[in-house]
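quick one before i forget lol
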Amino acid sequence: MIVSPELFKQRFLEAVCLFESRLVAAWGSGEAYSQLFQRDDPQGGLFRAIAERLGLKYCDEYFKFDAVLYERPERRLLEQKRTECILVAIEHETQAQTSIEEMNKLAILNAPLKVLITYEERQKQAEYLGTYAEMLHAADVFEDFGTLRRHLVIFGDRRGQKINWSFHLFNGNSFDEIY
């Protein structure tokens, strides 16, 4: 199953609704906020909720990626914490200033969808998107980042008691906002 950026966006927004009040309450707390995404206990975190809505499995901190979503692992691989194919790789960085190295990490991975979630005010997002686009353009040796190996950037921006999310998809040259 290949997860389209549009489907990921839809499932992300569905899952965020379950966590909205906790995300707002933990905003700015660093580790506590990140744990709402990555928590891997019976309640689960946001990444697990997204995976379930996509019908995929979830693994945290897989080869230093914050989350990977996959479909059909073989038992012997799971016991060794390995999977044959990563369908979605996710990096979550609470500080936009350090998100560039997370995007670099995603750029070198062979997966159909790579997602960076970070936080910045709306008026400053274009600068980061430009930097990410330069990096991805340079890393796109097979010229398929705009068609096969997609990159989705999700920005969160808190306004009062709500977090506004914007979604930006790399088209091979730059980022287009998806609504």
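fyi The mean pLDDT is 89.
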